[in-house]
Amino acid sequence: MAEIDQATPPVDQLTAMNLNDAIQNHAFSDRVLIRSIVGRSDGGAGLAGQRVRAGGWVKTGREQGKGTFAFLELNDGSCPANLQVIVDAGVAVLSKLVATGTCVVVDGILKSPPEGTRQRIELRVEKVVHIGEVDPAKYPIPKTKLTLEFLRDHLHLRSRTNTIAAIARIRNALAFATHSFFQEHHFLYVHTPIITTSDCEGAGEMFQVTTLISEAEKLEKELIKNPPPSEADIEAARQLVSERGEAVKQLKAAKASKEDIGASVAELNKAKESLLKLEERSKLKPGIPLKDGKIDYNQDFFARQAFLTVSGQLQVETYACAVSNVYTFGPTFRAEHSHTSRHLAEFWMVEPEIAFADLQDDMNCAEAYVKYMCKYLLEQCLDDMEFMAKNYDKGCIERLRMVASTPFVRISYTKAVELLEEAVRDGKKFENEVEWGIDLASEHERYLTEVKFQKPVIVYNYPKGIKAFYMRLNDDLKTVAAMDVLVPKVGELIGGSQREERYEVIRERIMEMGLPLEPYEWYLDLRRYGTVKHCGFGLGFERMILFATGIDNIRDVIPFPRYPGRADL
Predict the structure, then answer these.
(1) Which residues contact 538 (CB under 8 A, 6 or more apart)?
(2) pTM recorded for the entire structure
(3) Second CATH level (architecture) for the domain 12-143
């Protein structure tokens, strides 16, 4: 595992800024972003003589000149580069400033450092406005090299490291690029539900959403505190209702006044209400409610089984079949007990749907989208990408350039299997056997994209037996109009298909796969009423970040990873 480099990242490739612009405070903060100083093409040299206020966290600090002054490397997260800050002992107590992790806000003058130094500009402090002190003996993120595994145990502080901060900026850039791409191509952003009652994948590995357990626990405590009524209590209440009823009869027979009868009826109603409450309470039983020996989901919050979504695709299709081009971008969940470096229980998916479009259109859109993201990173995040290249994957920038500029290879699944079988005959060993009908394993996908073609590959027309029910059946009745985009480093990045728009065919597919029709009746309605040819795909957002950065473990490219046994914060 590569280790986190806490040294100052390079500044010479930071995004160039207009050197004639006067330095501005952040719009909503009384300070200057460090990026606006060191992120200029001259490294900030042209700002010498300007007074600024800067704030950030100390990456490294050291006292010099026998304690007469201190050097601080300050970073505020706006870029990977640090601002060198010099503080004289007469301005502040230096020992409070130099510990890694200390937060400081300072006023000072930007000055040109002595010739021969690495910095192009430094800040000479005139006043220390704020110090957020750190006890170096207790601070868990020191300036020494730390493994990414170690940082997973300190999620709340790991964003202060250069690596996790760089990944955060890259993730932000890819999210912005995603919205830019689809908005530029006139797609509507649709928020699909996180709580769902349908299983898009048909895999069954879903997190259930229920209040039955908490309600059962609450009831159990309540029944201990307030035991249900006994048979004797209920019998006494029945006797009281009978007596009150008899009293009303007698008053009516005696032709008593309306007031007296009314008062007696009120007493009767009160007795009946008490009896009803007692009878209802006597039916309360501790534990989860059952009906015919099974859990009674009619008693649950949504009056049916509900889950955390594994995909927003089915729901977003309802909008594609009304407003044409749509996409959803949000968290999805999978209750899969997997501890691999490629699996998370909570992850983000980008899922566009295009009406009046077929599999070719789907592949064209997927290719254009991936290229757009690669170009965007190279233009907007080159400084962070250079940091990743230096510390984790020296080929990551070249990989982005290659994908951004190279037409993707397109081959059928059948052709892909033939190429893999050919490789086996030539001596290539795969752990998973190659034959027509298998779901291609990651090793197969990576062989095709990294070894055989050395560029992105789109494989299309997969066997229907390994794909979901909603994918359009081809004329050969053996394959479906599905496609996967394979890229170096991660293998499958995108999975998509032309959707089955023919009512009878998709109904038959649902039944063929052993799925119940009832939960999908609304989905079938899209085919019953005004059906339209349409397609779409899903991109695993964290996989895109793995591909871009060269990081090995998916748990390090999402801010708060959730996986079996861990859901910190």
Answers:
(1) 311, 313, 349, 350, 351, 494, 495, 496
(2) 0.88
(3) Beta Barrel (2.40)
